[in-house]
Amino acid sequence: MERATFGGGCFWCVEAAFEELAGVESVISGYAGGHTEDPSYRAVCSGKTGHAEVVQLEYDPDDVAYEDLLEVFFTIHDPTTKDREGPDVGSQYRSAIYAHSDDQLETARAFAAELEAEGLYDGIVTEIEPLETFYEAEEYHQNYFEKQRAADGTIEDAYCAMHAAPKVEKVREKFKEKVTAEN
């Protein structure tokens, strides 16, 4: 198993999208890239801790390549808007990749540069840095999107219905060959 850490706006949306992928064994919402030890959600939301809302994946590289994770990451959010994703504004919502190894760091930087060279994005602002510390978010943030699902399958939380659900659908449509069988 390997780990990857991504920030692309609200962690509820990013978590829900990555949970769709075969080979992704776990997705944990949390915080990275800041200067305060063991920050709380409230502190991160203040913008004063320097942290981004992120998800940390544990994945099987035999089932899903790091490059596949990067492709999904760049598809489910706008990497050209600084400190913003959809309605969420602030440095805690910045686009970020926190690499767990030199290989991940080089691969992510090359991947972003190639997207720019191909003209798929103009002005990628994604922070690509080595991961220093990851702090797990409070329990109520974990698996948040699924916790909002009613018995009939509808999403009860308006934010999740408007922002996370479209990202999940995008993954299911664009990456159907990489989505788990139960989805």
Task: Tell me what you see in this structure.
With 183 residues, the protein is α+β, with helices and mostly antiparallel strands. The chain has one domain: Peptide Methionine Sulfoxide Reductase, Chain A (2-Layer Sandwich), CATH 3.30.1060.10. The chain is built from six helices and eight strands; from the N terminus they run βαβαβαβββαββαα. It has a six-stranded mixed sheet, with helices on one face. It has a two-stranded antiparallel ribbon with strand order 4-5. Helix 1 (11-18) packs parallel to helix 6 (158-174). The longest helix has 17 residues, at 158-174.
Topology:
Blueprint: E1 2-8, H1 11-18, E2 24-32, H2 41-45, E3 52-59, H3 66-76, E4 84-85, E5 88-89, E6 95-99, H4 102-117, E7 127-130, E8 134-136, H5 144-147, H6 158-174
Parallel strand pairs: 6-7
Antiparallel strand pairs: 1-3, 1-6, 2-3, 2-8, 4-5
User: How confident is the prediction overall: mean pLDDT?
Assistant: 95
Give the overall shape, derived from the CA principal axes. Answer: globular
Number of helices: 6
CATH homologous superfamily placement: Peptide methionine sulphoxide reductase MsrA
Overall CATH architecture: 2-Layer Sandwich
Number of domains: 1
* Class from secondary-structure proportions: alpha+beta
CATH class: Alpha Beta
Low-confidence stretches: none
